[in-house]
Automatic annotation (TrEMBL), chains A, B:
Protein name: Dihydroxyacetone kinase
Sequence ranges assigned to domain DhaK in this UniProt record: 7-329
GO cellular component: cytosol
GO molecular function terms noted in the UniProt entry: ATP binding; glycerone kinase activity
Keyword ATP-binding: yes
Keywords: ATP-binding, Kinase, Nucleotide-binding, Transferase
Any one GO BP annotation for this protein: glycerol catabolic process
């Protein structure tokens, strides 16, 4: 594992400097902590704010989804570490347009603790609500949905909540659509090779030269099984079956599909898998709209991919179709 | 090296099936060879056609740049192999709108031979011209520009020629702007780890666990030097210096910069490098417009990146700024 970087301690700050240098019209670095990215145009008065945050190392997640019709701001931790309380406070303040702020982030202990403390700190000043991304079906069973981790599928909730907020909805309505979108989204991943946290002595996990692990988390959390590498179609079939078996009750027949590279896995392989996913979903009587294929939520150079299904209702689909201004939200 | 794929012999066809399934509004597979991707809406009568092609394994190059204001069609070879003569003939025919067709592709022997034969085969039927991508400054010296290979920088010529053709220009004018854009573009790459051609017994090259190679080609062609891995800033400084030392005479002060992942190198590292490139160019009195940072021309899971500079004149900049319809042409 090799990285093109300078001092490991500068990895995140130099990355953020690069992000704001490359996309000055989209992203501004702000806050005393310098660990907040907000929209270049600032919070809009009279609009509900939508804030996310999390550890670094997952670009374009989370920061890349700051933009009109998406997030207002994002607090940024070190690689694979939650953001500080201070940066969460700053992100919430910078997203505040006087109508309250939704905190929408992945279900990880450190992130939860710091966002909760930030909300408490601000409670006399800004009304906040919380929705947690819990889309990873491999991380806990269907009877323990609240224990599931948040992974790539959270971008659907960003998009739906961001569009709803842009439409002028109340904090309650934005919170409701975010929760409804999380509840309608399922993700599972497979890992083929690990990544390396900058400065760490060892990769995030070890795996045999001919092995694959189903259900591994984006920081290397243990999955469901590890076995010899299998043909892509066999892997895709199992992933789709697990996702459909776990689908919300009363779901409709329309879904958006996200086939997401964890990092090193190239577009060629994503497309080979997408082809099979599309054919399996079609055979199951499910219609794909708004497919997403590419790098949406990564673990740096980890090899593998995740598949997310967002089961659409009329409102979620309409919100996903609305325009959004981020270089990283891209629908085919 | 592990791949999520099925039979190696099906890699390219399954990838193309995935591409057209994911982006049906953009890409259609066509030709008896089934190895042509053309615009969904077909060739426009009265417009000059712009055709490219090459080996697979470089997505989104070449196929992903088919779209309005870019390429009309693309012939597709096996991984790292040139497209067949038949697929080149079909691609040219499918791009023909009665005003002639520009063949615009990278300077590699196999691609050249087959595109030349296709042009000869069609010479009584369709007027064609040729422009070769020759942006890789590490592949031959400044006195042998014609021997240089084409790499990521060719996308600037796609964009300029495609926009000019869309404006209704003649074949001569489209050819001239393509050549002028190639002449204004310089690229250099660094490789950290190899990729694996599907079905091959060994990776495309071997490199030590702590080594980097400057100037390596996108198929693993030997570079300028190999050494211990260095800090990103040091690597970026050398790359920028080499690019500026090789800049066209009489260049202006405005450039577009492309920091392109060869595959496994994540966005975090691209941004760290971009930050340094931007600061070095600024120190050299050069103004960056239209920066591109991401996966634009890859070698599957190869680790490393390339930096391209396109030295702008007024017309090239105006053409780069025109809208283009491809899911993969993205300006910050």
């Amino acid at each position: 594992m090799k990285k093109l970087m300078n001092a490991p301690a500068d990895f995140v700050d130099e990355m953020l400097d690069g992000l704001t240098a490359a996309y000055p019209a989209s992203f501004v670095r702000d806050g005393e902590s310098r660990r907040v990215i907000r929209r270049a145009e600032g919070a809009r008065q009279g609009k509900v704010g939508v804030v996310s945050g999390g550890g670094s190392g997952h670009l374009p997640l989370f920061t890349g989804y700051v933009g009109k019709g998406l997030l207002d701001s994002c607090s940024i931790g070190n690689v694979f570490e939650g953001p500080t309380v201070d940066s969460c406070i700053e992100a919430i303040k910078l997203a505040d347009g006087g109508k309250g702020v939704l905190r929408l982030y992945g279900n990880y202990g450190g992130d939860r603790m710091n966002f909760d403390m930030a909300g408490e700190f601000l409670e006399d000043e800004i009304k906040t609500t919380t929705v947690l991304g819990t889309d990873d079906i491999a991380s806990a069973g269907p009877n323990e949905m609240g224990k599931r981790r948040g992974v790539a599928g959270i971008i659907y909730a960003y998009k739906a909540a961001g569009a709803k907020a842009e439409d002028g909805a109340s904090l309650e309505a934005v919170t409701e659509i975010a929760q409804r979108t999380v509840d309608a989204t399922r993700t599972i991943g497979v890992a083929l090779n690990p990544c390396l946290v900058p400065g760490a002595a060892q990769p995030s996990f070890t795996i045999g030269e001919d092995e694959i692990e189903m259900g591994m988390g984006i920081h290397g959390e243990p999955g469901i099984w590890r076995d010899k590498l299998k043909p892509a179609d066999e892997v895709a079939d199992e992933m789709v079956k697990r996702l459909l078996d776990d689908a919300p009750k009363g779901r409709g027949s329309r879904v958006s599909v996200l086939v997401n590279s964890l990092g090193a896995t190239p577009l060629e392989e994503l497309l080979i898998v997408y082809r099979r996913v599309a054919s399996q979903l079609s055979a199951a009587g499910t219609q794909i709209v708004l497919p997403l294929v590419g790098h949406y939520a990564t673990s740096m150079e980890m090899a593998g991919l995740s598949i997310s299904l967002c089961f659409l209702d009329e409102e979620i689909e309409a919100l996903l179709r609305k325009p959004a201004e981020s270089p990283f939200w891209r629908v085919a």
